[in-house]
Structures are given as C-alpha cells and as structure tokens.
Amino acid sequence: MAKWWILVKERFSPASYVPMILLFTWANGLYLTNSLEQDWNWSRFAVVFVLLLSFFFRMRLFDEIKDYEVDLKINPTRPLARGVLSVAQVKKALLVLIVLELVIAGSLGLSPFLVHAIAIGYSLMMYEEFFIGDLLRPHLTTYAVSHTFVSALLGLSAGVAMTGMDLTQLKTEHGLFFLMNWFFFNLFEFARKTFAPEEERDHVPSYSNIFGCTGAWALSISQAVLGVALIYFLHPSLWPPIALTLYVAVSLAYLLRKSRKTAAFFRNISGVYLLVHYIILICILGV
C-alpha cells in the first residue's frame, strides 16, 4: 500500500482531485435531482462520490500506462518510470476498479448501471486511443477533446446514479447541462498545457507551443465562455458570467507578461475557477 500511496500523492493529489470530484458529483447529481423534483439523499451521494472517485482515479492510471514509454525518456522521476509500481500491477488494479464501479452502479439501479457501463466503455476506448492513435496523437487539440468528452458522460452518470431515473425521462436540456462539463474540462486541459516560452520543452507538446501564448489563452477562455453560455441558457443567473469575467480579467496577467510565474498563475487560477464554477452551480441549483 505504501507504493500505491506514493503514486496517489504524486499523480493523483487528494488535495486537488477530491474537492474537484466532490463538487463535480454534487453539481451534476443536484441538477438532475432538482429536475425530477426528488429529495436530496446524502447517503446515496456518498456512494455516487465513491463511484466517480474510482472513475477519475482509473483515468489517471490509464494515463500513467499510456505515458510510460515517454516518461522513461522525458519524465523518469514519475512513479512508474522509476519502478515504484509496475505496469502489470497497475493493470490489475484497473480491472479491480472496473468491477468495483460496475458493482456500485448496479447496486443503485439498472439505469445507473447502464449509463456508467457506457462511460466505462468510452474510457476503455480512450485507453486504446479509439484505435486510431497514430492519427490522433499528432493533433493535440483533437486528441484532447475526444478524451475530455468523457466528462459529459460522467456527469450524466452522476445524475442518473443520484436519481435512479428511467432513461426515457432524459430531455434535451439535461443533455445540454451535462455537455457543459465537456467545455469546462476542455478549459482545464488546455490551461494545464499552456506555458511561458521559457518553460517549453523539446518533444513535449503544448497548446502555447502550437498556437502561441495568445492563441492558447484564447482557446482556454473560449471553452469557459461556451460552458457559461449553456448554463445561462438553462438557468439565467448573473453569477456564472460574473465569475467568468473575473477569471478572464485576472488571467490576462499571463498575456501581459509571458513569464514562468504568470504562466503558472494562469494554470493555477484556471483550476481554481473550475472549482468556483461548480460551487456557483450548486448554489444556483440549491444546496
């Protein structure tokens, strides 16, 4: 277990991931609960949180395996690359987590099981890079958005798991809400791979390297704008646009001075904004 804790601390920091997964689960679950006029169930929420925590951790493990060969050359200090755990051990853990998720989802009802099984299936396709990895890998943005789409399916899984709703009850507005997750996870993905010119490394693709600093910033902001537009369409409230405006304003520091410090600030403030966005959603929907 000590070796697994090393991997968790270094590659799946509880301080970063747990609050994000908690808020993500809460917001998506609360949305569908309110839409169906059901009472909020904290016990059920705890189970759904564990389900999504397992899913996100499994995504991290997938990436560790996929990046293993590259990490041996470029990031040799990462846990798998330096031999803390073997690829075989991680693959066994992945199988255990998949079974665990199916059991948990199944215990919540048929609809939660079916939706989460679809999300698992999509995640396995992601792991195989949709069987067109050679085609996808040279196109960083296309590669990213094809993978982050799983967040929309996971949001749906959280909502259905919280409510146990019949899938025939799903409406267009439900789909639009869960699609919002895709845009915000795109924002997170684009921002975390946006750097100052002095931070760029050979053979390590980044959005700032491909589109320039201004282009990478604009790409990130565009996703926040799309996500907020969807929320405003579904739930007209000034709080999401206000939060977006503040985020855009402070993130301009990166464009005004493209340094290592401001690039790190942009990456960090984008993560904070993601959390703030989901907190605002929870408040709008009613805690």
List the helices and strands and how they pair.
Blueprint: H1 2-11, H2 14-35, H3 42-66, H4 68-74, H5 87-107, H6 110-127, H7 133-136, H8 140-148, H9 150-163, H10 172-192, H11 207-234, H12 239-256, H13 260-285
Helix pairs in contact: 2-3, 2-9, 2-13, 3-5, 3-9, 5-6, 6-9, 8-10, 9-10, 10-11, 10-13, 11-12, 12-13
Descriptive overview:
This protein is mainly α and 287 residues long. It folds into 2 domains: 1-170, UbiA prenyltransferase (Tetracycline Repressor, domain 2, Orthogonal Bundle), CATH 1.10.357; 171-287. 78% of the residues lie in helices and 0% in strands. It has helices at 2-11, 14-35, 42-66, 68-74, 87-107, 110-127, 133-136, 140-148, 150-163, 172-192, 207-234, 239-256, 260-285. Helix 3 runs antiparallel to helix 5 (87-107), helix 9 (150-163) packs across helix 10 and helix 10 (172-192) packs antiparallel against helix 13 (260-285). It starts with a helix and ends with a helix. The model has no long low-confidence stretch (mean pLDDT 96).
Q: What does this entry show, briefly?
A:
This protein has 287 residues and is an all-alpha fold. Helix content is 78%, strand content 0%. It has 13 helices and no strands.
Features:
mainly alpha, Tetracycline Repressor, domain 2, transmembrane helix, cell membrane, membrane, UbiA_sf
Helix content: over 70%
Main sheet attributes: strand count, strand direction, barrel closure: none
Please provide the count of β strands.
0
The CATH superfamily of the largest domain turns out to be: UbiA prenyltransferase
Looking at the structure, the CATH topology of the largest domain is Tetracycline Repressor, domain 2
Query: How far is the first residue's CA from the last residue's CA?
Result: 36 Å
Shape: globular
Q: Which value, in Å, is the CA radius of gyration? A: 19 Å
Elements, N to C (H/E) = HHHHHHHHHHHHH
Mean pLDDT: 96
In the CATH hierarchy, the architecture of the largest domain is Orthogonal Bundle
Structural class: mainly alpha
Summed up, the domain count is: 2
Helix tally equals 13
